[in-house]
Amino acid sequence: MSIEITGVSKRFGDFVALEDVSVSIPTGQLTALLGPSGGGKSTLLRIIAGLEYADTGTVGIEGLDATALPARKRGVGFVFQHYAAFKHLSVRRNVAFGLEIRKRPKDEVRRRVDELLALVHLEQFADRLPSQLSGGQRQRMALARALAVEPKVLLLDEPFGALDAKVRKELREWLRRLHDEVHVTTVFVTHDQEEALEVADEIVVINEGRVEQIGTPDQLYDEPANDFVMRFLGPVTQLGDQLVRPHDVALAPGADDPDAVAGRVARVVRVGFEVRVEVSTGEQVVLATMTRTEFLRLGLDVGATVSVRVVPGAPVVAAGPGSSSVRPGLEVRAG
């Protein structure tokens, strides 16, 4: 079930939520709308769902112009961040709700609910109330309820945002497996870069109401269109006037390389298997990350003179206006 967004704009008073946004989402794909808070991604999702209407532009769902259609006629399932469960109904009745109001036969409702509870691994909790479930279980219940009416499109608005980090990681792995089983076209909103990179087939980066870049996780990470995308999808550091990933910064003892920038190790921090080395070049502080094995091989320590360069072939982007990694008054100390 493909989705075509063409020239969509939306204002709330003087605030421009979306400006001339065009996105094509292929059938069966899991697409992430990624961006900072207030960037317009949730507004776009609500326009696809029919919960908001665009000021200009069109929304097409499987070739049908859905721009003016009400939400109930779009064949869309919607999952909110905070579950929106019926607190007085059991898990089974929550999942069955959409089918019951459509007056489906009781045998069909029972069979479909049983299938979905098994799919989301909640069979043993069918008779519990939502308050008796964990946050992750309630979110799985909400997904089952959205899938019950066999939607053409499944829309998820920051579905794991209210959960702790461990549960979020477990649920996004589960969502990827679930999507591969049900093959429904899915669009989810997130501001979590790791979540988008891990789960999505394609990512739409939205900032200040505009689409910055669309591509696969690998394309966006390895070929960022601009400094915003580079900074938003993963850690960056600055060497001269270029932004680069810290793991693409190479260090070598001494300052003999004429093609490199000379610097001095200012701080060393070990985080598990990773070592983060901050190098002061006088005007900038450049961050390099490496494995502990590589760090020990280089034999570096705080105060050591080093050559700093970008790994050949690594993605780099020109730093935008006002970008700087200068940190005045850096204290040299061991981490």
Can you tell me the CATH superfamily of the largest domain?
Answer: P-loop containing nucleotide triphosphate hydrolases
- Remind me, CATH topology of the largest domain? Rossmann fold
Number of strands: 18
Name the shape in a single word.
Answer: elongated
Tell me the name of the CATH class of the largest domain.
Answer: Alpha Beta
Unreliable segments (pLDDT under 50, ≥5 consecutive)? 325-335
Q: Span from first to last CA?
A: 52 Å
Mean of the pLDDT scores?
A: 88
Structure description:
The chain folds into 2 domains: 3-228, P-loop containing nucleotide triphosphate hydrolases (Rossmann fold, 3-Layer(aba) Sandwich); 236-318, OB fold (Dihydrolipoamide Acetyltransferase, E2P) (Beta Barrel). The protein has helices at 41-49, 91-101, 106-119, 135-148, 165-182, 193-199, 217-222, 227-232, 292-298; strands at residues 3-12, 15-25, 30-34, 56-61, 64-65, 76-79, 153-157, 185-190, 202-207, 210-215, 237-239, 242-244, 249-253, 261-271, 274-280, 285-291, 305-310, 316-318. It starts with a strand and ends in a 17-residue tail after the last strand. With 335 residues, it is α+β, with helices and mostly antiparallel strands. It contains 9 helices and 18 strands. Strands 6-7-8-3-9-10 form a 6-stranded mixed β-sheet, with helices on both faces. The model is unreliable at 325-335 (pLDDT under 50). Keywords: ATP-binding, Cell membrane, Membrane, Nucleotide-binding, Sulfate transport, Translocase, Transport. Residues 3-233 form the ABC transporter domain.
